Amino acid sequence: MENVVLIVHLILALCLIGVVLLQRSEGGGLGMGGGGGGGVMSSRGAATALNKMTWGLAIAFILTSLGLTIIAAQSSSTGSVLDRVGTSAPAVEEEAIGDAPGLGGGDLLPPPADGDAAPDAPITPRAD
User: Fold this and answer.
1) Which keywords accompany this UniProt record (predicted)?
2) DSSP assigned state of 81
């Protein structure tokens, strides 16, 4: 059910974008580029029809948005995210961190204790 409403919602969004782009603006519209009223519909009639179509698509878009929100609220878990704030994160074992490469778990040599190397010398990998 949710997928059907979502597909209808996306189709409505695309149609709404198209109808808005077809409307005449102050600089002329994409689909209504000037010209006289020599067609089936006059420019005033076309503007009224596009206006009504825009309102209809907008109302349908809002209704599908509300429907998707209701469906998502019903299928979600009963708890709030704020209810889970007090729980602690799972503990991480130190051995797992020590075995991981690049995380400082013994894959690098400690700096020399006797002061041979310069303090800015890079730490070299262990030759195993």
Assistant:
1) Cell membrane, Membrane, Protein transport, Translocation, Transmembrane, Transmembrane helix, Transport
2) G
Q: Which residue has the higher pLDDT, 52 or 116?
A: 52
| Intra-chain end-to-end CA distance of the chain, in Å | 59
User: Tens digits of per-residue pLDDT, 81-93?
Assistant: 677 676 666 666 6
Burial class (CB in 10 A: 0-12, 13-18, 19+), 13: middle
Phi and psi based region of residue 76 (left: phi greater than 0; alpha: psi -120 to 50; beta: remaining): beta
Residue 9 within a domain: yes
In a domain, 35, yes or no: no
Residue closest to 10 by CA, chosen among 70, 57, 42? 57
Residue 22's pLDDT is 87
In a domain, 85, yes or no: no
Find the farthest-apart pair of alpha carbons in the chain and give their distance in angstroms, rounded. Answer: 96
